[in-house]
Write a structure and sequence with these properties.
Layout lengths: L4 H9 L1 H12 L3 E5 L1 H5 L6 H10 L6 H7 L4 H20 L5 H20 L6 H7 L3 H10 L2 E4 L5 H9 L11 E4 L11 E4 L21 H12 L4 H9 L1 E5 L6 H13 L5 E6 L8 H15 L1 E6 L1 H12 L2 H11 L4 E8 L5 H6 L5 E3 L19 H24 L3 E6 L14 H12 L12 E6 L2 H8 L8 H14 L4 E4 L5 H13 L8 H11 L3
Parallel strand pairs: 1-2, 1-5, 2-4, 3-4, 5-6, 6-7, 8-10, 8-11, 9-10, 11-12
Length: 539
């Protein structure tokens, strides 16, 4: 595959998002959530158009009902048509409304809906692939995803998967399975295509679902079930998988409820929402920013405003080879490694914040079990103990820096930047300690440097930090904590500050995530800063 001009422009516009999505795709932790806009692109009707088609069919003849219904919801109109058809059929059959008869009528109704749904759409999978502006480019992502969610009844995704599916050696059956019941156990070796609203394939021999969320009663039931927690499997999927929402409207009440639940349960887990733009549409940066901020704050969504061609380009970028992607990024001057260091005094909540950001590449404070002397206040340690702790801590930061050097692409969140040990050092010893640290980070003839990154400082009232650490086997009073906080501000001048006092963990995590996902990325040259301190200390 060649990365062309559209892909390159998209990479320049959204480098962090694409790097993150590629990382999740390689980890098989990326999924698509598809809505009506995906199917409408190849002629499938909107909900309103589908209802009108059904009303016009000779078997239903319900145009007069739709006209009389006025402004009622489309689900209510569907309910009226279904009841109208059911009554007509029972009268014609002249039999009681037994379970067997109602089941027969339900099957007939499903065929009516199916015929109206596929009317005027491409017949073969090849025609479907040629007609759709971007879905073929997303099929490789679907094939590698543990689960793809589509709120559409149709089998567009399945047919394109059949078309693109390569032979599988020593494997039985299809590469994917279609499900519509979240309670079903999915096979582990195939991709699952989940239809929460039901499944109505073009070939009814392909096991359609028993029920469709199409009429007023079924839609209401789905919303009630969502509010009652019956969609726990979807929430679990959103918690473990980074999703890209395509062709969906946030006006859908059930979807909004699901997203809000997910955001409240997992404040550090963010997904991507593609807001579709028509080709050539004039962009309004102010409006886009308002939408982007609202979606981020309320639903934990990172919004991408894309045209059809850009959605296709996104799919190609996500599945391009590592070498091709790297070369394109180099040629466009786009960085592929985004490092965020979380710093702060003892009790600021760094480790807690990092633990909520599991969809990113996270690096713990320590690379091995904590040294027992870390539980004692720094002023109470003997000189020999301080040397022992210093050596152990420096080893941890050197190992962490080596891990960052080896990881060339991704969004990385690091618990404590490597200059933090200087905050535990007396002012007259800082320059000497900085020189020892430089020797450790760049040993022998190596030219290794500390990996640059954006420093985010968690700040707050020292007394509150003291209260947080009392029960964590860390004996540090407010005076010591305030001194550490002041020193850290001197070590990292001009860093991004996140206020934590009086705020919930969820609020702090959301603020950190905003700095990572939305704010400008301005990395600090920490190696240069350490060199400066080694010469002139903290003055």
């Amino acid at each position: 595959m060649t990365i062309g001009p559209i892909e390159r422009a998209l990479l320049r516009a959204h480098p962090r998002a694409i790097v993150h999505l590629r990382e999740r795709h390689s980890a098989r932790a990326l999924g698509l959530v598809l809505g009506a806009g995906v199917s409408k692109a190849v002629g499938f009707p909107s909900w309103r158009e589908l209802v009108e088609r059904i009303a016009r069919t000779p078997d239903v003849r319900g145009d007069h009902l739709i006209a009389a219904a006025g402004d009622v919801s489309e689900t209510a109109k569907t309910q009226m048509l279904l009841q109208h058809y059911r009554t007509k059929r029972l009268d014609r059959l002249g039999v009681p409304a037994s379970a067997r008869t109602l089941r027969k009528i339900h099957g007939e109704w499903r065929r009516i809906v199916q015929a109206a749904l596929y009317e005027g759409t491409p017949g073969s999978a090849a025609e479907l692939a040629a007609a759709h502006p971007y879905l073929s480019s997303l099929v490789p992502v679907v094939a590698d995803s543990p689960m793809t969610i589509t709120y559409n009844f149709d089998d567009t995704v399945e047919r394109l998967l059949h078309l693109e599916e390569p032979p599988r050696e020593n494997a039985y059956g299809r590469r994917f399975e279609t499900i519509w019941d979240a309670a079903l156990q999915c096979r582990r070796d195939v991709a699952a295509i989940y239809h929460p609203n039901g499944y109505l394939p073009s070939n009814l021999l392909e096991h359609p679902s028993e029920h469709l969320v199409f009429s007023e009663d079924t839609f209401a039931d789905q919303l009630i079930e969502s509010m009652a927690g019956h969609h726990a499997s979807l929430l679990h999927h959103l918690a473990r998988t980074t999703c890209v929402f395509v062709g969906l409207s946030l006006q859908d009440e059930t979807l909004r409820h699901l997203l809000r639940q997910s955001a409240r349960i997992n404040p550090g887990q963010f997904h991507y929402y593609v807001s579709w733009r028509s080709p050539g549409q004039t962009r309004d940066p102010e409006t886009e920013k308002l939408i982007r901020d609202a979606n981020f704050d309320v639903y934990n969504l990172i919004t991408l405003f894309l045209e059809d061609g850009e959605i296709a380009a996104l799919g190609r970028l996500l599945t391009a080879s590592a070498a091709e992607f790297k070369h394109a990024a180099e040629e466009e001057g786009v960085g592929l490694r985004y490092v965020y260091y979380l710093t702060g005094a003892i009790g600021a909540g760094k480790t807690t914040a990092v633990s909520y950001l599991g969809s990113l590449l996270t690096y713990e404070e320590w690379t091995e079990p904590r040294h027992e002397l870390l539980g004692k206040p720094w002023p109470e340690l003997t000189p020999a103990q301080r040397d022992e702790v210093d050596a152990w801590i420096l080893k941890q930061f050197v190992n962490k820096n080596l891990a960052l050097i080896d990881k060339e692409t991704g969004i990385m969140v690091v618990d404590r930047p490597p200059l933090d040990p200087l905050s535990f050092t007396a002012s007259h010893e800082v320059a000497e300690k900085a020189r020892r640290m430089l020797s450790a980070f760049s040993p022998g003839l190596s030219h290794r440097r500390i990996v640059p990154g954006k420093v985010i400082m968690l700040e707050g009232l020292a007394a509150e930090f003291e209260a947080r650490v009392i029960g964590r086997h860390k004996e540090s009073d407010a005076t010591l904590i305030q001194d550490l906080q002041d020193k850290l501000r001197g070590i990292y001048p001009g860093t991004v500050g996140v206020e934590t006092s009086g705020h919930s963990v969820h609020h702090v995590v959301k603020a950190v995530a905003r700095s990572i996902h939305l704010d400008d990325y301005r990395s600090a040259d920490l190696h240069k800063r350490l060199q400066d301190i080694s010469v002139s200390g903290m003055e």
